[in-house]
Amino acid sequence: MTSGKSPLVFPALCWIIGLTVGKYAALPIIPLAAFILTLFILLFLRKNKIFLLFVLIILMGILRISVLQLKPQNHISRFFKFRTQSTQPVSGLINSEVLTRNGRSSFDLKLESIADHQVQGKIRFSSFDSNLKYGDKINTIAVLSALKSSNNPLATDFKEYFQFKGIHGSGFSKIPVTITGNKINWLNYLVIELRKFIRIRIEQRCPENTGFLKAILIGDKSELNEIRDILTRAGLSHILAVSGLHVALITVIFFTIIKIFIRHRIFLRLITITLLLFYGYLCSWSPSVSRAVIMITLYFTAQILQRKVSSNNILFASLLVITVVNPYQLFSVGMHLSFCAVFVLLNIMPFLTRYIYKIPIRNRKLKILISSILTLMTVSLVLSLFLSPITLYNFNQFNLNGVIGNLLGIPLISIILPLSIILLVIPSIPFLVNIYHSSLDSTLAVFNYWSEFASGLPLHFNFIPISLHQVLLLYLLLLTGFWLLLSYKKFKIILFSTLLLLVFLSWRNYGSNKLQVIFFNCGLGDLSLIETPDNEVIMIDCGPTEKDPGTFKRSALPYFQKKGIKKLDWLIITHAHNDHYGGINDVFHNLEVKNLMVTDEFQTRGIWPEIFQHAEEENAVIYTIEDTTHLRFGEIKIKILHPDKDYVSANKNNMSIVLKLEFGELSILFNGDLEEEGEHYLISRYSSFLDSDVTKVGHHGSKTSSSTEYVELISPEYAVISTAMKNRFNFPHQQTLDTYSHLRDNLIITGRDGAFIVVSDGVNAEYRSFSKEMK
């Protein structure tokens, strides 16, 4: 490849503009198509065609994504507009691999009918039937649900993610599935069976490293555990994604093996291209794999045709191919990272590496060694810098540990990958298998040790919030800095300094001078966050365990990351039930906890030693509640009303910490899981303290809580029930809903309405949920 002219750059940029406009602006397809046809005719009639051509490409991009967004009248997405959940007879075709976990099979179901009405579109489906396979036609009675948008602040929107993959809902069978036939696509079938074979082979021959090897060979990350976090901190997370590095190594392996049997260059390249395309299929055509496979395919094609091609032309041609086939790929983070990395390698690194090879070392071998090390470090550093705006915006992380981590990480993965492939394909001869298994095991041990070392380096920074305009400022700063390196001139230095100042000023946190309280939707559990005007942070409970979809890591951690909140001034655990303390491991792992508040009764429970160990390791001060007390945060007062020194109960729920927040004219009562017995005790002792504007309803809306007298004494304007709508206890109970029915729309159920947010300056307050505006 050459670095010559790149005529595809501007057409590709126009195409990107068109797709972006089309995604966010719905334009009528027929008038748009007619206008494009008119421009085509004008293109052949006018002399000055360049501007017209670029406009035409933009409009074609808009049309392409608009057509993709157009759905037929019987599409499943239209069905969900009228009913977000229903139980219906369903028939369809399984058109993906069937994956089984914990006795449940899950797969993509291409719908054929719902209640005898023909339907189009795909949903993600699950069943407890164990005999299902790709290509089966099935009938069953199923609960169908629409995809839900994120209903917690700053959380990942999985609805958009699944829609980009062509999935428009979910379902699970209520009765055993009936198989009525089988229809397969032979290429899909071959790929699925090969993926199964590779998984089984890895499990048989490398049981100690199955998750890691499945990830690097076929892009299956479902079994990755703590190694994902280790590699992320080490700056080696790119190794887990089947990327250009992997595809390049696979290409070398294919090319070398085929060359032994076939010497004809054209046939050699054609067979390599075919195998590469199949490998892309095997890895589900992820953005990085698609880009690498298409680039290498185009390069080999150019060699077959004996044409010189620009590397940038190949890069942008691959972008066009990918986004013509699936325009939504343009908006994936993987695509952004992959193309940005290759663009930097092709256009910026050549200017920097040429200085490295000029180092004045006479010994040739020593010069090659030092030059190679410096090149690898420079590549890692420059890529880290140029990818940092993307990783900051999407993951709130900035990492330079990879500058060291890649020194051994990349050479080791270059050994691990071919060894893994050899171990998979060699026959089951014990002696032979043992040799390669030992070699792979030893190399993986070194890799794991090195990853642990690199992950402990101090150059991994997280919880850094960044906006889109800051992303643009950072890229302007990086490009200006590179421009400055090429030649020092006064105006360039002034421009660089100005951009640096703008980036610094845009990152300053001026604060809001208001109190904010968030009741997160964490499923069946409690998780509330208080942010004071003085930037002190208090969390009351931390949600259910890791197995629950509403765990702290999914419901609240994204908010902490995107807001840059790294520490909790206070963590208050109301009582010893795991739907209230279940997320504590993730809290201590991700945040600095300064003070931990629990009751003396909590400290008698079996879970306490584990929590105590976490607190000791993090140097958190343990504050034990034995009686009523209060905390002050500037103008904010938090009163601990329960349990006092005289109250004792064998019921954990009634030993919940009950606290009241007061800020000017605003008051909020947090009830934990307090039940009627505890409520009556509070009525008898502290009734004058109960009146509040907002109450967090006790015990997730259970009928054992919220006695009429207690609710009347609170007299809330708003009530929040923290529960999932579908749960094993059928919370909230109708009795509780009736008790709060006078609040009408001001009764919030987090599983239905999403997170509930209160913002106040002490005089006025704003209330909102994620599904409706509050008065």
Written account of the structure:
The chain is α/β, with parallel strands linked by helices. It folds into five domains: 9-69, no CATH class; 76-184, OB fold (Dihydrolipoamide Acetyltransferase, E2P), CATH 2.40.50; 193-330 and 405-462, no CATH class; 468-507, no CATH class; 515-768, Metallo-beta-lactamase, Chain A (4-Layer Sandwich), CATH 3.60.15. Helices cover 49% and strands 17% of the residues. The chain has 28 helices and 27 strands. It has an eight-stranded mixed sheet, with helices on one face. The chain has a seven-stranded mixed sheet with strand order 19-20-21-22-23-24-25. A hairpin with a 2-residue loop joins strand 21 (658-663) and strand 22. Helix 10 (265-282) runs antiparallel to helix 11 and helix 15 (364-395) runs antiparallel to helix 18 (468-486). It starts with 8 loop residues before the first helix and ends in a 6-residue tail after the last strand.
Summarize the structure.
With 775 residues, the chain is an alpha/beta fold.
